[in-house]
Amino acid sequence: MRIIYILSLLLMTNIASASTTLKTFDSASLQAQAVESAKAEGVTNVNIIKDQSFSINKDGSPVGFIISVKGKLKEMQSVCLIGWSLDGKKLIKLLPTVGFGEWQSVTCAGVNAVGVVSKKDDQDLKLGIIYHTMTRFNDSPDYYILGVNSVDKTIFYDSKTTHKLDSSEAKNIAELRRDLQKEK
Fold it and tell me: Domain coordinates of the chain in residue numbers?
C-alpha cells in the first residue's frame, strides 16, 4: 500500500512539473514602472490589478511576469493594459488592450481572470485574459489572447486566436480554454 502511495506521488509530481503555472506576485518597483509607462501613454488614474498579476513558470523555469493595469484615457474612458517583465524587476513592454486600437469603442471595467489557454505541446505559450467590458448597450466578458514567444519570451497580441473566440460565452479560464480547443 505504501509503495502505491509513493508511486502515485511521483507520478503527480512529474505531471505537475511538466506544466505552466501562474502565481500572484507583488513587486512595488515593477508596479511603479507600469504606472509610469501607462502615464506616458496618456493614461491617468492608473491602478495595478494585483489579484490578476502573476509570475509565470513553465516546466519549473521562469517565463515572465504579467501585470494587469487599469486607468482612464482622456479622463473619461476606462482602459486596460498589460505589462510584461522577464525578471520581475524591469518592465520591458506595456501592451494597450481594451480601450485601444480595435478595442477603442469598448470600456474596460476590469480584469476577471488571467490564465493559460494553450496546450502543453503548443510551441508558443498562450495566455487568456477575460476582461469585464462595457459599451453603451452591453455589459459582458471579452477575451484577449496573448502569445509568449518560445524563443525570446516576448509577448504579442494573438489577434487570430482572439477572434476565434468571438462567439464564446466563457465565464472563466477553463471554459475559455475549452472553447479555444474546440476551435483548433
Answer: 20-183
Asked whether the CA dihedral 91, 116, 133, 142 is positive or negative, the reply is positive
Cα–Cα distance, 143 to 150 (Å, whole number) = 22
Sequence-separated contacts (24+) of 85-92 with Cβ below 8 Å: 85/30, 86/62, 86/153, 87/62, 88/25, 88/27, 88/30, 88/55, 89/27, 89/29, 89/30, 90/30, 90/33, 91/30, 91/33, 91/34, 91/37, 91/67, 92/154
Report residue 88 CA to chain centroid gap.
15
What are 45's three cell numbers? 488614474
pTM: 0.85
Read off the pLDDT of each residue in 71-75 and give the average, rounded to a whole number: 91
- What is the number of residues in the chain? 184
Task: Tell me what percent of the residues of the chain surpass a pLDDT of 70.
Answer: 89
